[in-house]
Design goal:
homodimer, alpha/beta, 7-stranded mixed beta sheet, elongated
Chain lengths: ~600, ~600
């Protein structure tokens, strides 16, 4: 990789080592993140920081970590889970189009990495989008972590795959500097398709006793004779004299003509729904991103061939240039969103919530990058009905709640959906918006505000014997239960937990204390990692717990939504039962 | 799809409609699970069940769900999340080799589905494994859910991709029965590589007013004129007379010569570790699967180019024929394991626990299939040290706990690791085993048993003021804290929660009650969905909660393991502090 990296950093890329975030700079993504040391060495050599810092590699006090993270100003997205960097690079390349810049994006992959399916999702999307501002380089060194790679040095295996996927592929000797520079020139001159440079390399090149040998993956030379011998061999290749001095300054990109003023989003009009109007939150989501997109040029939307279900088609209709169709490829959709976000866009990728699990590892890496992606998952829970369990997201809240820095938002009506879309957009860091399939009535007035980290008490009286916490479709079951109980003379508090994370612990504790410590949760989600556990964790410091946690507790099946809510224990009648049982046993304890 | 399905069911496949699980039967996987109605129609037509059942499609009382699940005896794995069926089909094809059967596996994919990266992971693995007993058919109907597909009817786009990936590809008119049968013949005669039949089809073929039209995805004809007209048009194509009667009986596969006796696993010798011996649980895992594999021919292992880290290489060394290397492609690894399990194998796929998130959607579908996969994730948590956050699994327990039917096992020493591997193997349904990177001392004697759903109280006295629940590396931090507290005159109970799910609620409640209700959890995992929340949920019915939940609460970084345990709040000193604070505040409350 030393030769490839040297060519990129010291002959090809236009960038400013002192200001790596210059919006006109070429981008470099190290998709094979485990090669971090050479990335750090290149940036140090370019002058981004002092070489002495390199000796702190992997130490707790240094940002030069085992794999790159955006703690470093020259890293756009964290890498180290393979096959993700190339997806982010697509986002970076799409962003150049969005802002009208001619910066180029380079991404360096491993040959072993190319077995990841996400690489081929990326290959399809980049070719379809004709991203000729994207240049990949595959370091074909033939050795994986544990053994030789699948295709080793059979370069044709790689070339025919990339060509079949519509890329311009160039096979070179990755240690021939003239060939590397020639290929980079050829890539820059190629129009209408991305280029993949397939570089045949020898792992450990230049150090005779490790060249092409297994067993050296991630291993440092032993200090002493071994290291000395390796260094002595490498130093023999040093070039001095004419041509050895590189003037990076001449390749610092000029500011764009417009100077890239900070975008000025137009003020956003409040929602305009009518109380009682029946609107699915997924549909309100689609309308909301379209409205937001018209007000803010940074907002983009991505979808995975379900735009007519997630309603992201409403965005595409008004802003087709900022809508990216990824077809049925959720990994590249989320990865491209990460790259777009890292370059200043505010991306909303959407699909069925259950299919976001396809991108769980990307969601994890987006957390590590703390990048501004706003994921939207529709068709949450069993309330989708007849399509059956494979289409029902019942673990998405657990997936997002596990990450320590995601805002997890769950609107129940159209007004809260629209407000939460805007809140997510301007929330620093990643966010998730969970929407539902069924139509639900608008219960909030258009001027209601929904700050992230809050909740709404939608029913309360001084005599409430319990607090029911619901979200989405279960909020309406809770409201039905409230009415049924009231008819029997029992009043309960009802809470809409629209912000599952961060969670309003104080308000939950207050509600719990005001209702004899009797908290009941009801969620269209599995029990593990869901709303019941979230609320229980929030109220535990006050010595409270959740008395009854209504959740889906087995693998569901096809059926009508209302049948399923009842069969799997989260309908109004189950809430009524839970309240009566909890209040009864609490009274017994008090007696 | 009607023509393709008719050819498969009534001319090509050898199967027994009355006994779909006959081990010699050809397998059919409907990877495009949303086409379930035709699958059900074909099996009904073949005589598997009465046609009248078809009218119960998608009703709550019927197993004919919106997408196929193994509730139906002729469905091996649930499909409906695209790109998974082809991975399971690889497992089915590998299983034929394992048992020495010549059954063939057929898998029907959609063209839109082919954008999923997992399809190309499968393509690579099937070609590498030369699975000529596997035949794919892609229904290229050019229409996705929301719009025309990426490549529509450009058949060369498909052919060149499959050929580049090493498959024998045949392009046909998918409505030409002679061409379909010819292609199936050609596939059967092809040696050394899998075949993909690329069938150009027209969606809605035979019904003039919907043929090739958008807007009919997942839509039924309206009863009345619309339906009548469609049926009338279709009935015109019915074939009667000579050749129209199909004799399926002649294609029922004969039992194998050996009659496939139920495998008789040899008795498993107990572990043979020494108390105090330092062994990483990941290494004990590798040794355990090798030992188990030698005793039971159903056991197979899969890995994703990290066999030297997960130690699955110990299995490969003794049982190379039952070890499947999937290179860096976690989706196909887990998908193939699902297919193997559905055909009677007991597969152990392993990789770094964080990279199992790559297969989260497969893990979800394995839950829906309730299939016998035994996933192993190594390198859990921040205790891996310098490699940094991208390599640390801190959300894997949340991912597996969310599913209602996974056994989630977390050994702390080598003896429990070996015992839990065997327990997982013979546990009906899916299981997850979480192992750690650092070496830990053996604390259990070799005859100790570890039933799933249990826990171990490893320290207890009559004066315990609190219960500390740990697992893996944090169990040893808890033991250190125990000793430090004891030196100061405070004794605590220490619990090893080796079975996170199912969880031993009774024992946790008993421990909590015996220690003044003071429960403290400590986990090498994020807080959301982890051990703290699991324990809190388990003890809530007794009115108890978890007083202090020590967990990783921010994105971690590179550093030495012990530095990280301390910095992110899960080391012995944090446990000591938590105990003293919890006991102090409890005493205040009691005062």
């Amino acid at each position: 990789m030393a030769d490839l990296t040297a060519a990129l950093f010291f002959a090809e890329m236009r960038f400013d080592p002192k200001n790596p975030q210059n919006p006109e700079s070429d981008r470099f993504v190290l998709s094979k993140g485990h090669a971090a040391p050479i990335l750090y060495a290149a940036w140090a050599e370019a002058g981004a920081f002092d070489r002495s810092e390199l000796l702190k590699l992997r130490q707790i006090g240094s940002d030069l970590e085992g794999h790159p993270t955006p703690r470093l100003p020259f890293v756009d997205v964290a890498t180290g889970s393979l096959g993700q960097g190339i997806c982010a690079a697509i986002g970076s390349a799409l962003n150049a189009r969005r802002i009208g810049s001619d910066y180029r994006t380079y991404v360096l992959l491993g040959d072993g990495e190319s077995a990841e399916g996400s690489v081929w999702e990326a290959a399809d999307v980049a070719a379809m989008d004709k991203l000729d501002n994207l240049c990949g380089i595959t370091d074909v060194n033939a050795l994986g972590q544990s053994r030789p790679t699948m295709w080793q040095h059979d370069m044709d295996q790689f070339a025919r795959r990339w060509r079949a996927f519509g890329w311009h592929a160039i096979v070179i000797d990755g240690h021939d500097m003239a060939a590397i520079l020639g290929a980079l020139d050829e890539a820059r001159a190629t129009r209408g398709q991305p280029t993949m440079i397939l570089a045949r390399t020898i792992k450990g090149k230049g150090v005779s006793f490790v060249e092409g040998k297994e067993g050296w993956h991630g291993k440092a030379f032993k200090k002493g004779e071994e290291l000395d011998r390796a260094l002595a061999e490498l130093e023999r290749h040093f070039v001095t004299g004419p041509g050895a001095d590189i003037d990076l300054a001449q390749r610092i990109p000029k500011p764009s003509a417009s100077g890239r003023p900070a975008p000025q989003p137009k003020p956003l009009a409040p929602p305009s729904y009518t109380l009682g109007q029946e609107v699915a939150t997924r549909e309100a989501y689609g309308a909301a991103i379209a409205k937001l997109g018209e007000a803010d040029p940074r907002v983009v939307a991505l979808d995975a061939d379900v735009k007519n279900s997630t309603f992201s088609e409403k965005f595409e209709k008004v802003l087709p240039d900022r809508f990216f169709q990824n077809f049925i490829a959720e990994q590249v959709m989320v990865g491209a969103a990460m790259g777009l976000a890292a370059r200043g866009a505010i991306p909303f990728p959407s699909t069925f919530a259950c299919f976001l699990t396809r991108a769980a590892d990307f969601i994890r890496m987006a957390a590590i990058s703390n990048v501004n992606v706003k994921l939207a998952g529709s068709h949450a829970g069993i309330s989708i009905g007849e399509d059956g369990p494979s289409q029902m997201a019942l673990e998405d809240l657990a997936m997002f709640r596990a990450q320590p820095n995601y805002a997890v938002l769950y609107p129940s009506d159209a007004v809260s959906a629209e407000r939460l879309v805007a809140a997510a957009a301007y929330h620093p860091g990643p966010a998730y918006i969970r929407t539902s399939r069924p139509k639900t009535p608008v219960i909030y007035s258009n001027d209601e505000s929904f700050p992230i980290g809050g909740l709404k008490v939608v029913r309360s009286s001084n005599d409430d014997v319990a607090t029911i916490v619901g979200c989405g479709v279960t909020l309406f079951e809770a409201l039905k239960a409230h009415d049924q109980l009231k008819a029997k003379g029992t009043t309960v508090r009802v809470v809409d937990l629209y912000s599952v994370a961060p969670i309003d612990a104080d308000a939950l504790i207050a509600a719990g204390r005001a209702t004899h410590g009797c908290l009941i949760t009801v969620e269209d989600h599995y029990a593990g990692g869901g709303i019941g556990e979230a609320v229980a964790a929030a109220v535990a410091p006050a010595g409270l717990t959740v008395a009854r946690r209504l959740a889906v507790r087995e693998i569901p099946r096809s059926g009508k939504p209302e049948e399923l809510l009842d069969r799997f224990g989260i309908s109004a009648s189950h809430i009524v039962e839970a309240v009566l049982a909890a209040v009864g046993s609490a009274q017994e304890v008090r007696r």
